[in-house]
Specification:
The protein has helices at about 5-35, 35-40, 45-70, 75-100, 105-115, 125-140, 185-225; strands at about 170-175, 175-180. By secondary structure, it is mostly helical.
Amino acid sequence: MAVNKFIKYSLFTFNFLFFLGGIVIFGLVLHARANKERFQITDNHLPAIDLLVFVGAAMVILSFLGCCGAIRENRCLLALFFLGLLSVLLMMLAVGVMGVISRTAAAQEKMRLHVTQLLPLGKLPAGDQVAFQQIERNGFCCGLFRGHLDWGESEQVPRSCNCTDTSRDCTAVDGREVYATPCMVFLMTWMDRVSGSLMGIAFGFGAVMILGMIFSSVLCCQVVANKGSIF
């Protein structure tokens, strides 16, 4: 039985795209990991982020094995590719599970307890205050739970709380308008989006990897039928 050329070159194309995807994921996740404050990545998300770094590197290596195994019809490389792809699939499922866990009420309550220790915000180190003020600008919010009151004295409320968007919910404080919405609302919404993205990535790549596993196993069986033992 001849090796199916469609499966062979489809597997090669799949692995080439897999290689590009691995580079993109590896680069983007490393960039996000190195700029945690900018992307507002909390400690609760670090395990999933670190796992994605490893998955991205594994994708690059596995795609190389798959390309070589498909184009050279090498049984050992195809078998290694299949086993490696299965391992990565399980890891991606773990990322999806972490995304689900991060959306639970228990995880959100844990985050609430952690950030409560930051109050009052006016007593935070200068660098931390600057980082949080950037969150206020991005989220059109002020404070954490109680709005401007979380900063302490009214004179400590920073300019980042100033209500520059009149379509937002604002309140008057010492003759100026500040955002009335606490930033915890913005942070929780952002966390839901991040966890949703993680689950989407895990599901999408999982479906593609299952297809790759099917193609590699079929091609490997055809090569074995032509050349005998898998070794």
